[in-house]
Amino acid sequence: MIQVENLMKRYGNQTVVDHISFEVKEREIFGMLGPNGAGKTTTMEMIEGLRDPDDGKIVVAGVDAKRQKKKLKQHIGMQLQSTSLFDYLTVKESIELYASFYPKARPVKELLVSFDLQEKEKTWVKHLSGGQRQRLAIAIAVVHDPKVIFLDEPTTGLDPAARRSLWDIVLQLREEGRTIFLSTHYMEEAEVLCDRIAIMDRGKILALDTPRELIRQLGTNTRIEFPSKDDCYDSEFSTLAGVKKVVRLENDLVQLHTDQLADTLQQLIPLADKYHLPLNGISTRTATLEDVFLEQTGKRLS
Ligand SMILES: Nc1ncnc2c1ncn2[C@@H]1O[C@H](COP(=O)(O)OP(=O)(O)OP(=O)(O)O)[C@@H](O)[C@H]1O
């Protein structure tokens, strides 16, 4: 549904999107995960025809995004980081306004129901909660029934309940047969929603696959973390059963990557006893996309 080849964008002498290529399949939720400034918005807005690339090819639903911008608009819906809404229009009036921009639009009532905004139809935009505002922004993005929807960090700033309710909406959009391109810096969001994820940092795609496969490629499935001020015991940690890697984190934390959690812990406790190492605050967890990100970039996403 989307093909991107060798896409590049420069601002001054900074290359913010560095020759990236990828494809998004039909009816897929495709996520771009990366920290602030990674180049996600720039990439998304080039695909949407809002920014001109310096190089590369973009085809969306068979339309050349660089040359056929008018045609492109019929096929795509966008929720930008700052979708313009008018404070003193009601929810219903806002949808009607955006619907009037297109020759054919979905019935307003249907959108109010789909986005759980019936009770707010007469409420001014100014008085909506963050979650309701985002739901309205997405309702407006799909008012012309587009095949492809772009959501730029749709849940940033929302509380957990509003975030989950928005996830349901995104899943529903896919159920309706749409293709969704989403950017986020929340790993959980990427893990829950996305069929495939591109991990982006400094303008480059570092890894691209399903969340499950990205985690599987790490090789070890469990992380043990505990405070450890200096690295003099790290070589001993690396000999513990199951430990494949010892990583020093910021804040005097050490992380053991293991595929035999119970065995590692069984050997770690006597070792800590022997050297009087406090294991206060020790935690164990299954590997996540955060670990994939750490592995790829050497830094934490959150
Ligand atoms: N119009 C512009 N002029 C100059 N530099 C820009 C412009 N837009 C973005 N940049 C720079 O390009 C880089 C990538 O920005 P971009 O907004 O695409 O990243 P992002 O991954 O979407 O981050 P965020 O999550 O903060 O939106 C940043 O260093 C940013 O400062």
Automatic annotation (TrEMBL):
Q: Where in the cell is it found?
A: Cell membrane
| Single annotated GO MF | ATP binding
Under CDD domains, the record lists: ABC_DR_subfamily_A
Task: Tell me which GO cellular component terms the UniProt record holds.
Answer: plasma membrane
Alphabetically sorted, this entry's keywords are:
ATP-binding, Cell membrane, Membrane, Nucleotide-binding, Translocase, Transport
Coarse class of the primary localization is membrane
Q: Which superkingdom does the taxonomy of this entry point to?
A: Bacteria
- Quote the Pfam families the UniProt record gives: ABC_tran
Boundaries of every ABC transporter domain copy: 2-227
Which family does the record claim for this protein? Belongs to the ABC transporter superfamily.
Q: Which PANTHER family match?
A: ABC TRANSPORTER ATP-BINDING PROTEIN, ABC TRANSPORTER ATP-BINDING PROTEIN NATA
User: Which named protein is this?
Assistant: ATP-binding cassette domain-containing protein
Task: Give the species.
Answer: Shimazuella alba
Its ancestry begins with:
Bacteria, Bacillati, Bacillota, Bacilli, Bacillales
